Amino acid sequence: MNQQDGYADDIVKGFVIWSMVWGLVAVLLGVFISFQIAFPQLNFPPYLTYGRLRPIHTNAGIFGWGIGSFMAFFIYITQRLTRRSLWSPGLAKAQLWLFNVVIALAAVTLAMGMNRSKEYAELEWPVATLVVVLWVIFSVNIVMTIVKRREEQMYISLWYILATLVGVAVLYLVNNAAIPVSLTKSYSAYAGANDANVQWWYGHNAVAMVLTTPPLAIFYYFLPKATGVPIYSHRMSVVAFWSLIFMYLWTGAHHLLWAPVPDWVQTLAMGFSVMLIAPSWAAVFNGYFSMNGQWHQMRENYLVKFLIFGITFYGMQTLQGPSQSIRTFSAFIHFTDWVPGHVHMGTLGWVSLVLFAAIYYTVPRIYHTEVYSIPMANMHFWLVLTGQLIFSITMWIAGVQQAAMLNATNPDGSLHYSFIETLAELYPYWYMRAAGGVIYLAGLLLFLYNIYKTITGGKPQAAVQPA
Amino acid sequence: MDSASIYYLGVTLFLFIVFAAIVARTYRKAHQAKGEEPKFRMMDDDEPKKKDRPE
Ligand code: HEM
């Protein structure tokens, strides 16, 4: 612990460092599998195939980089907003160990081909059980810190943190219900269309409770810290929070439009997905209005640049997502490369930009150093922005082209192109995507170097430099 | 409409009413200053403060 009566920040260091390690693994794998798509000869069975590596990429990205850093910042933020040191730093230490064991086990078991075939819920039951233990330890620690808080009212970030803890617990338990038949194999407790429905209720709410509520908690905390000006409206943030929670849980079936789940379930999902624009954009507007009179900081303060671009991508994401949830639009882009374009604007744009800002803000404070190089941080920003935009834009174009080809028919009504013909047309886009990935990776490496030098205390910044 | 749909609709309506109550409570006039207080208090949280303690 930092000091007896202070905040337990040593544990934050551990989570930040390990999340960056898993983030690097995720991006390295992402770049490698993008090359495997562009150059299929790079597949080396059985372990180094796209099929084995893709789930390791998503698990390392969402759970290693995402959840790892959310754990860091939930611990950092909760202590400050409650003005309490962490309820149990010892428990948090155990949590860090378990977290790394789980992610490593996930990587090994997935590489060996043990996979429940449910997206984002691939882990077989022994590893999934450890995830549950991990989440309970984490939740108890955060909830107890909040219960013992010295602040009467809870700042909005704490609401988002609580929603994440409860939401993930419910989703994970329900969707992972399974009947084990051996140590390495289990069968889902649900069957057929019900299984798909539960899976996508989980899948989309993983987007809600892992890729939306935690980064929002972090955004609402670090934007005012970075600008030095409070957020525009706390009450608006509270109302947006409750409407987001009210709406998100019904939207999962927008992944199953035209599938054999009841029509009314699909319509409900479609309706709620469109309604989600309101709470999502309330957060975006809150971010933008918080910048009233502060827009010059976009030029002067690199943290603000990361955060405002991050929330802008969130805004784009929450306009694109509802469009994709409409039956006709879904029929067009589903099963095409449009979807990875959407996904990576969210993960590389929204989530990662906010996390980069949070790491740049906290690391110098918890290590009592200065950021090693602000110009390097700016370079990092432009590289990851360029890489992500190349990725998303090429995939949207590829998706539309593929969709048009899949929909083309001959005069007798038969399909004009076979599926494989549509794929063959996509090679140029896949080359560009791989190039975008390399640019993103370069930015990430610069970031890691900058943080490494910040931690090891190399060449401190001049005190006069802006934040 | 079968009973499952009516149940579904009922739960949705109930939740909506809860949500409407939250909005009404958050935006009532008397709550204005208090509702905005946390955004100012969070600006200064670098150390736990002695004066903040209840005891
Ligand atoms: C209003 C908010 C949003 C809505 C309504 C929405 C809607 C959708 C829809 C309909 C799909 C499925 C596309 C298809 O396969 O046809 C999808 C996929 C996805 N979205 Fe969004 N989206 C939203 C926001 C976000 C955000 C903020 C993220 C953050 C990263 C995100 C991440 C994803 C991911 C990871 C998938 C891929 C799921 C898969 O593996 O198939 N979405 N979204």
Describe this structure in words.
The complex is a heterodimer of chains A (about 475) and B (about 55). Chain A has helices at about 10-40, 50-80, 90-110, 125-145, 155-175, 190-210, 215-225, 235-250, 265-275, 275-290, 295-300, 300-325, 325-335, 340-365, 375-405, 420-425, 425-455; strands spanning about 180, 185-190. Chain A contains 17 helices and 2 strands. Chain A starts with 9 loop residues before the first helix and ends in a 12-residue tail after the last helix. Chain A has about 475 residues and is an all-alpha fold. In chain A, about 50% of the residues are buried. In chain A, helix 9 runs antiparallel to helix 12. Chain B has a domain at about 10-40. Helix content of chain B is about 60%, strand content about 0%. Chain B has 2 helices and no strands. The mean pLDDT of chain B is about 85. The chains are: A mainly alpha (about 475), B mainly alpha (about 55). The interface of A and B includes residues 157, 231 and 234 of A. The structure holds protoporphyrin IX containing FE (HEM). Protoporphyrin IX containing FE binds next to helix 12, helix 13 and helix 14 of chain A.
Question: Main traits of this protein?
Answer:
heterodimer; A: mainly alpha; two-stranded antiparallel sheet; 17 helices; disordered C terminus; B: 55 residues; mainly alpha; 0% strand; binds protoporphyrin IX containing FE
Task: Summarize the structure in short.
With 467 residues, chain A is mainly alpha-helical. Chain A is built from 17 helices and two strands. Chain A has a domain at 1-189: Up-down Bundle (Cytochrome C Oxidase, Chain A).
CATH fold topology of the domain at 1-189 in chain A: Cytochrome C Oxidase, Chain A
Oligomer: heterodimer
Mean residue pLDDT of chain B: 83
Question: What's the overall geometry of chain A?
Answer: globular
Main CATH class of the domain at 1-189 in chain A:
Mainly Alpha
Gap between N and C termini of chain B = 58 Å
Strand order of the largest sheet of chain A: 1-2
Query: In terms of structural class, how would the helical and strand content of chain A be classed?
Result: mainly alpha
How many helices of chain A? The count is 17
User: Pair with the most extensive interface?
Assistant: A-B, 33 and 30 residues
Kindly state the number of beta strands of chain B: 0
Query: Regions of chain A with pLDDT < 50 over 5+ consecutive residues?
Result: 463-467
Principal-axes shape call of chain B: elongated
**What structural category arises from helix and sheet content of chain B?**
mainly alpha
